[in-house]
Amino acid sequence: MRFNRIFQQFAGITDAIKAFPLATVLLVVLFIVNVAEISGTVTNYDKWLAALVVAVFAASVADLFAKRVLTYSIAIIFTGLFFWISNSNDLILAIQTGIVVSALMMGFIWLGKENFSARFFHIFKSILITAFFSIVIFVGLMLVYAAINYLLFPVSSHIIEYIAATVFGLFTPLFFLSLTLKEEESAHILEVLISYVIVPLTMVYALILVIYIALHFTDWSENLLEPLLVFFVTTVLVVYFLSNVIENGLTKWFRLIFPKVLLVIVLYQLVVSIMKIGEAGITHGRYFVILFGVFAITIAVILTFMPKKQWLVAPIFIGFSLLSVIPPVDAFTISKHNQETLLQERLQSLGMYDGEVQPNPDISKEDKQFITEKFDYLQRMDYDITWLPDQPFDKIFGFSQQYKDYTNEVYYTTNLDWDEPVITDIDQYDYFVQVSASQNSMHRRFELANNMQLRLQKDQLVLEKDEQELLAWPLEELDILLTSNYRELSVEEATVIAENDRAKLQIIVQNAQSHRNQRYAELYVFVQVKE
Q1: b/e string for 406-419 if b means 16 or more Cβ within 10 A?
Q2: Pairing status of strand 487-489 against strand 412-416
Q3: What is the pLDDT of residue 226?
Q4: Phi/psi of residue 120, each to 5°?
Q5: 372 contacts 400 by C-beta, under 8 angstroms
Q6: pLDDT tier at 335 (50, 70, 90 boundaries)?
Q7: At what angle do helices 21-39 and 2-19 cross, to 10 degrees?
Q8: Whole-structure pTM over 0.85, yes or no?
Q9: Which residue, among 60, 268, 90, has the nearest Cα to 179 in the 3D structure?
């Protein structure tokens, strides 16, 4: 009986193909693109992959609502707009894709019904079942692959990628769509899990956040809650809608209390995040925290005073999501402009910008850290800042990148000037060793000959012959090369000589760093033995 039920679930894939024709066609196109990428190289693969994923979700919504030319045209236009506004930076593209897909999934759940929670529960259950079957099938096929590869004959490792593309790129979405077509049924195990595991854990999690707020209510210099806000809001809303179809004392109490708890926590963090704008500006992360906070407050008010209008969460979520990715009000346009302006204004106040950046190594440590933070963010996000020269950081600003740690100490670095060729006479030396010296690499041994060793131990280089020390050079001598201002060393400046009547070491420092009396260095070591 159970076997027949499982067989019917798999057979439902044909029903999904009939019910979602455009989505099926696009899934096949996506599969072909993935196969082409495995076999060779697809130009601009990441962007095409993101666009096709969005197209599949848009087509699924269009298939679900109405199989009409107008609906399909809207889905295609929507995908084209996404491809046009999407960024080539991997991080930004991933965020944009995730947001748009989430908005489309919310539209898929919404379906224009007021019984939003029941539909939400049904889709959530379908996702869990799909994930379970997909993982089991993939693991099973991988075991078959391993058995053939190790027991019978070698099989190309690319087969693994083809299996993944087939299972997760074709089977998984079609199986999920087939489950969404079935009638909404109760799921006792899932209901027990939500009622007696997920709801209590969410309560404990919220209690910890409330205690944190109580302890730091007047000390807003702390901002540890901000990274957790989106996760917390998502968790509470998901659990709320899942528990809304379960009638017991615990879930009723949760639905009654938690919209108010959500309101308090989000209001507190929203005020803190807005205050932080004046100190650190708007990054894309803070933009999303603030926008998501406004969304959460809106939903908390609706769930508190108009619980029967809970379906409004879908259109409101879709609206906020699209707002965050459509220029010029999207997270990335605003964060780029804000961080660029803050950097430019700070440079102007320091006399380091008058149309062009003027290097100045003599500014304060705090200014150096501020400039480093803004520059790193703009570079990491691949924002095109026309007035910043395309040069290394130290060439632009005249000092090395400096970072705060938890005790406000700074990392100091120095590097060899690679524009100058490294030329040294090696005739007088017997051995050459390239050494990476750090706290984690202590007690390394370099065998130079049967009776000759260069050892890295206790923050020093030791040359030994027949287990007798010939010469020792302490790494702390690197400190004379390190200053609070960045220096790019000439070969002469980077060369250190350690010598006695038994041996000689010529050390050329490629780069060196120091922090909390811990050192890291890449060294060229030339060894001469005199006896």
Answers
A1: eeeebbbbbbbeee
A2: parallel
A3: 72
A4: -60, -45
A5: no
A6: very high
A7: 90
A8: no
A9: 60
